Amino acid sequence: MGKTSETTSRRLINLTALCSVVAIVFVTIYWYRIGVFHDLASLHAYINSTGLIGPLIFILIQVVQVVIPIIPGGVSTAAGVILFGPWQGFLYNYIGIVIGSFINFFLARNYGKPFILHIVSEKVFDKYMAYAKNQQKFDTFFAIAIVAPVAPDDVLCLIAGLTHMKFKFFAWVIILGKPITIAVYSMSLVFGAHWLLHLFHR
Length: 202
Prior knowledge:
Elements: H1 3-33, H2 40-49, H3 53-67, H4 73-84, H5 86-116, H6 122-129, H7 135-147, H8 153-162, H9 167-201
């Protein structure tokens, strides 16, 4: 990747992150003003009134937060359960996170280390690249880490794209492993989301 391409991609990432944050702030303020956060019934009624638009927007938000981590993934995952209920929330979380993970893999494979360093620090990059010296061991580590709720999944998906990992293996690990982490994040953070809703209600 040339210097011009690196500069352009960095600007694009920064612009996307800024626009996403601004959009989230404005939407939150708007929802607060129209009483969406009054209680869970109001929130669910509003989401249901959006038809397919609500789920599609949420899935897009999940894709963006995986590729450009502007908000903690666990928080957005729990938000999905609060907004859409346990089953639909799980499904929308799963779709968005899987798509975002695939995008990370292909971005890293096509644009390499310079692109990844736009997302994570060099210290973090070096830390996880150390696991990739042996491909077989890294594949095993990757599969275990994806299932572990505390692992930096998004970073590992980027690192995986730089290795010789086969996409078929990567895809199956993500497809089969992500439901476990999504379920754990949802259940552990959903109570925090309920607390935030009660806070808005005051």
